[in-house]
Design brief:
The complex is a heterodimer. Chain A is built from 11 helices and 4 strands. By secondary structure, chain A is mostly helical. Chain A has one domain. In chain A, helix 1 runs antiparallel to helix 8, helix 2 packs across helix 8 and helix 10 crosses helix 11. The longest helix of chain A is centred in the first third of the chain and has 31 residues. The termini of chain A are far apart. The relative contact order of chain A is 0.21. Chain B is α/β, with parallel strands linked by helices. Chain B has one domain: 3-Layer(aba) Sandwich (Rossmann fold). The longest helix of chain B is centred in the C-terminal third of the chain and has 17 residues. The termini of chain B are far apart. The model of chain B has no long low-confidence stretch (mean pLDDT 94). The chains are: A mainly alpha, B alpha/beta. At the A-B interface, helix 6 and helix 7 of A face helix 2 and helix 3 of B.
Chain lengths: 304, 238
């Protein structure tokens, strides 16, 4: 029981990170119908920017942790968002009216390019970061096993919940969110009504990148090591989360992320750590075969 | 005063020339109708006014300003609003959200007033406001499409086949509202229709389009009495 609880906490933390990345996949798919395979790299870049800004802050003598976290969060989101915007601008927009596979191929190219760019600029070795937030609570002590939740895990889960709540409100209540939903359902009609569709798509990439940046920063804090290749696996897992939840569905991406995190944690805890990635990709295969629309996705058929 | 003038407009879909030099003008305050068979290019003309697709030759002038090259999303801000072919309601948005989308180009301070005006024209929309667009009946969707177009406070309203697929009673009701919009709210209307009889009765002037060109024009009454028009568009059906 204690062990179960511990895996639940670990799984939720991991799921929060996947969920934040998955939102970017699902939103971009919703609005332009393509899988942005460079999104994992955006997350990786977010992780690197956060390491660089943590190091810069500590070199500047900032030791107050909450301040450092806030500054790094803002810096990482801003710069990563700029990457997201630029990628859409140079790799996808020129192909907007091309055949369907073109942007997809461009995305894969972009992903390889970004990996190599970071490898060249930062080197291929792993980048370690000193633990910044340490300590935690012991929730339960059953003699031979202690259930712990670290302050960092609390931080990750709370920040994710706050971001997701804020984000859902934005999509459902603001006029920008409404314009995004309109572009998703009928871009030409949205343009007739006065929506600048290109700008709305750009903003979608910016938002998705900003959320992936937060995930990158969390992973930096959580694991303490990153390298130029982390975007691939995390990207494919978050993509799995988006598919599991129903690609195009925002609550689906959040739910899918949490489920994938939990599945991975429990699989590692009870079966095999070596095969934890297999569990996730097994889910991807099962979903694609038996429920391609995902848990909260809608079927393609619409009454018009 | 001429509000909209379309001068020698050609439009292509790929290699197919859908409009082959069209001239149409709409005076301020009028209801002008464009009738013609399926595939004649009527909807293409309405979409070309809004820049989708763009005219490859010719000029479109609105209130003295050349809008041939204006971005689609900017056209509504100049005062042209379209209820397009197939209505294009946002199916997974509520009626209220759809109407809010209609108002996206205007000052938010007008919203309450404009919403009230639309609900007065189409009381059913007020009762359905929390319902999703895709669940409305055809007639209700048409009302929503017109209401949404009105939310942008247009001076020129482009309507594409508002009667399509609707019961005769609902058609009558929609045409009544179009007259009201024109007479009371002083909105100029350019109406594309296959339902030639109703359209010509309502309109001040009309154009007949055949395979991408204007074949005939005249007042509504003249066209209703024209032998060719009667033979091609009116006899039998009504």
């Amino acid at each position: 029981m204690a062990y179960f609880l511990q895996q639940l906490i670990n799984g939720l933390t991991l799921g929060a990170i996947y969920g934040l990345i998955a939102i970017g996949y699902t939103m971009v798919y919703g609005i332009i119908g393509m899988i942005n395979f460079a999104h994992g790299e955006i997350y990786m870049i977010g992780a690197f920017i956060s390491v660089i800004s943590f190091l810069a802050l500590s070199a500047a003598g900032v030791t107050y942790v909450p301040l450092a976290l806030l500054v790094v969060l803002i810096v990482t989101m801003t710069f990563t968002a700029a990457y997201g915007w630029t990628i859409e601008r140079i790799a996808y927009r020129p192909l907007r009216h091309s055949f369907r596979l073109a942007p997809l191929i461009s995305a894969i190219g972009m992903s390889i390019f970004l990996q190599n760019l970071v490898q060249l600029l930062q080197g291929a070795r792993v980048k370690p970061l000193q633990p910044i937030v340490s300590g935690g609570f012991v929730l339960l002590d059953s003699g031979d096993f202690e259930v712990q939740i670290s302050y960092l895990q609390i931080f990750i889960i709370l920040l994710t919940v706050a971001l997701m709540a804020g984000f859902t409100t934005m999509i459902n209540r603001t006029s920008l969110g409404r314009a995004q939903r309109a572009c998703e359902q009928d871009g030409t009609m949205a343009a007739l009504l006065g929506v600048n569709v290109d700008r709305t798509i750009s903003l979608t990439f910016v938002m998705g990148a900003a959320l992936a940046a937060v995930a990158g920063m969390m992973v930096t804090l959580y694991y303490g090591v990153i390298d130029f290749y982390i975007g691939f696996l995390a990207g494919v897992k978050a993509f799995t989360a988006a598919v599991l939840g129903g690609i195009g569905s925002l609550p689906g991406a959040m739910l899918g992320g949490i489920l994938i995190g939990l599945i991975e944690a429990f699989w590692s805890g009870y079966f095999s750590v070596e095969y934890k990635d297999v569990s996730v990709f097994g889910i991807l295969v099962l979903v694609l075969i038996f429920r391609p629309t995902g848990l909260l996705g809608r079927p393609e058929v619409e009454k018009v | 005063m001429t509000m909209l003038s379309i001068e020698g407009v050609h439009t292509f879909y790929g290699n197919i020339e859908a409009l082959k030099g069209v001239d149409v003008s709409v005076e301020t305050g009028e209801i002008v109708t464009l009738i013609g068979a399926n595939g004649a290019g009527k909807s293409t003309l309405l979409m070309t006014i809004c820049g989708r697709p763009r005219a490859s030759k010719g000029r479109i002038v609105f209130e003295g300003r050349d809008i041939t090259g204006t971005e689609t999303f900017e056209i509504v801000r100049l005062g042209i609003s379209q209820s397009p072919e197939g209505r294009r309601i946002f199916p997974r948005m509520t009626v209220l959200d759809n109407l809010q989308m209609g108002a996206i180009s205007t000052d938010p301070s007008y919203f309450t007033e404009d919403l009230k005006r639309v609900f007065t024209l189409f009381p059913i929309l007020e009762r359905r406001q929390e319902q999703r667009g895709g669940t409305l009946s055809g007639g209700e969707q048409q009302m929503l499409a017109i209401g949404r177009a009105l939310m942008s406070r247009p001076r020129l309203l482009l309507l594409d086949e508002p009667s399509l697929g609707l019961a005769p009673l609902v058609v009558k009701q929609i045409f009544e509202v179009i007259r009201e919009i024109n007479e009371q709210q002083k909105v100029t209307v350019f109406l594309v229709e296959q339902n030639a009889y109703h359209a010509l009765k309502l309109a001040h002037r009309g154009y007949v389009m055949q395979t991408g060109q204007i074949a005939l024009q005249g007042t509504g009454r003249e066209l209703l009495g024209n032998r060719e028009v009667r033979a091609a568009y009116l006899e039998g059906g009504h």
